[in-house]
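Escalation from tier 1.

The customer reports that the assembly of two entities below gives different structure tokens on two consecutive runs. Tier 1 could not reproduce it. I'm attaching the input and our single run for tier 2 to review.
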Amino acid sequence: MQRTAEQRAQHVAWMRQVADGDPDVFELLYDEFVDLTFSIALGMLRDRQRAEDATQDVWIKVWNAASTYDADKASVATWITTLAHRHMIDMIRRANARPGDRPGLEAGDEVAARLSNSDDVAEDATNRAYAADVREAMSELTGDQRTAIELAYFDGLTQSEIAERLQKPLGTIKTYMFQGMRRLRETLGVETDMTTGSQGEPRA
Amino acid sequence: MTDADRQDEIRELLALYALQQLDERDQVRVERALAADPELRRELGSFEHVSARLAESMPSTTAPASIKQSVMASVRASAAHRNGGTLEDIADAAASARPTPARDRARRRWFATPVFSGAMAAACLLLAVVALNANRDLNAAERRADRLQAAANERGGPPAGFEDATPHTVSTNGPFEQSTGSLIQVSKNKWILLFNDVPNPSAGNSWQVWTADSNGLIENVAQWKSGDTQLLVLDRADIKQVMVSYEPTTRPAPVPSSEPVADVKV
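Tier 1 run:
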């Protein structure tokens, strides 16, 4: 979602007020971004109840960590998205490491179970419904680059799990991800110099 | 390997860092490099922005209203507590969340139960203990907690499972000596850890929270990079111990590297 400079500045102002402990402004921030964080949770966890619990946890983290937000490093949208994504990755890997959290699952089954569960999310790693600009950028990648990034980002697989799944050496997987991310950055027009006021948003 | 080679290698690792793909050793290497080089921090920001664009491009799903009710109840109670409000203020703030829609009432979230005010009273019992530790005003805090609980009971009593929801007081020492903390189990799978007067960690360090289950498995569940009041929701059925230790701000280590400054056994 493209946001205007005014919107981004408004979000930064909100974050400062949230860091000062204003729950009314926190509610504005919540209303602005909760659907984004819930979509990330549902897309990655593929379980509505777990996604609801995870979204709740993410927003408590936003409240507690607001004072650590640095507007020079990232936009508020990117900061919240990164925080939400990290939380989902932690949940996925924790569940995979602790199969007792899901009765009847053995270690390693969590990933397979989640990948095969499409009750809530119809898309799989090769058929995601991206926005037009991201779809175009993803189409610029090789098939292996795209699959490696999707399995890492959306499914929370580790490099080793991706290597095993794609039957490629670990070093090759790292190369796919690095080259793919650089290509995406270039195609999406994201600049590395974020001192010009864009705060991490792509150039229009 | 030359410095330039090392710098190129770190740049490659940044993309993987943004995808949460580094092992602990490489995470530490990257975070050390990031701390020393603003150019690398900008580069990481660009990769994090790419990954955020991937997430934002996914089909949007509307979040259920019950999440907001639960989050805002916690946040308003936390804000009232931070601002030194009375227990009544905190209860009012927490109870100001809108009623739960009927379709969400079957959820297991504790704030979403029909006897919402009972849950709030239980939370206030926890806050009462915190206030009690801070003020040493045992009788007054007990009377307030009793009044709140009695009021909740008049409206239908505490929700199932809350009858014995006694807060566990956290032992503190060293830099946490002036802090007060409590741990309360609010449902089968959910706990709240609440601290006040947490000191600010020095730059590059953080307070890290750990849980231990009945098998002795220790897990890092949070990093606090700031002080004051800290509220943490723990989604665990099996918690036997919660600890806080002082650690460098890197990705979570497998176990604490220093003696805990706060500790509570269940």
